[in-house]
């Protein structure tokens, strides 16, 4: 009985209107697989080593998600969900406005700051998870994201580092992700998938922004034998080629 109550009661305290995460991540992001323009949080249109582009990406979420997310649900044919989500989004800001009049300091720290902090963290996480995209097949889970294995982040994020597997089988229980990864090593090699060992998504995103290619090469694993034989300069060129906006 508490299962529906907990996300309903707790999500506003994390800066998320009720129901928004489920529609944004579980429905839109996974069904559209980071593919632009249907996935409004897609990283495809951006130069993904450009900090300015990331700030535009984040601000678009902050400003436009209130309209774009219900519009996505409506276009997908789920009008009841679109109306329910719209009501939730409006209720969130009406409630926040009323609470602001009642107690500005409490509202700031309990609702407003968590919204900006959570939105920044979630969007930087999604940006980092989909920072390397193969121009030739951007809609493929194999080459629109990558895996982070052997890192402590996986112990805190329900094995989210196995992100290729997470997109290929979003309904797979988190405890089964490592097993499915080992079962598909040959597929990873055939699709020229990227892997990083010992670092997480935030580390990869920061390394890209700071141009720390030596850090990325240190942790980079390429299962495809031909790509793995490339000299370091060519591997860096490969990574850079997957940062450009998808045409």
Automatic annotation (TrEMBL):
Keywords attached to this entry: Membrane, Transmembrane, Transmembrane helix
Transmembrane segments: 55-74, 81-100, 106-125
GO biological process terms, semicolon-separated: lipid metabolic process
Residues covered by the Fatty acid desaturase domain: 10-181
Domain of life of the source: Eukaryota
Stored InterPro entries: FA_desaturase_dom
Keyword field contains Transmembrane: yes
Protein name: Fatty acid desaturase domain-containing protein
């Amino acid at each position: 009985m508490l299962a529906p109550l907990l996300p309903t009661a707790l999500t506003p305290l994390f800066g998320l209107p009720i129901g928004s995460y489920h529609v944004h991540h579980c429905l839109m992001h996974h069904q559209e697989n980071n593919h632009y323009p249907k996935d409004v949080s897609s990283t495809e249109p951006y130069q993904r080593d450009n900090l300015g582009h990331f700030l535009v990406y984040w601000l678009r979420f902050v400003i436009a998600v209130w309209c774009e997310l219900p519009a996505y649900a409506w276009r997908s044919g789920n009008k009841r969900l679109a109306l329910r989500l719209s009501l939730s989004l409006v209720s969130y800001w009406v409630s926040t406005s009323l609470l602001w009049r009642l107690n500005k300091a409490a509202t700031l720290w309990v609702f407003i700051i968590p919204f900006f902090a959570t939105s920044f963290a979630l969007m930087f996480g999604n940006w980092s998870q989909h920072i390397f995209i193969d121009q030739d097949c951007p809609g493929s889970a194999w080459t629109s994201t990558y895996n982070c294995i052997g890192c402590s982040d996986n112990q805190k994020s329900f094995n989210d580092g196995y992100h290729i597997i997470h997109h290929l089988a979003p309904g797979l229980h988190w405890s089964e992700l490592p097993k499915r990864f080992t079962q598909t090593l040959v597929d990873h090699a055939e699709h020229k998938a990227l892997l990083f060992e010992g670092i997480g998504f935030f580390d990869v995103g920061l390394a890209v922004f700071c141009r720390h290619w030596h850090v990325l090469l240190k942790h980079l694993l390429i299962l495809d034998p031909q790509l793995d034989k490339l000299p370091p300069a060519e591997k860096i060129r490969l990574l850079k080629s997957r940062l450009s906006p998808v045409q």
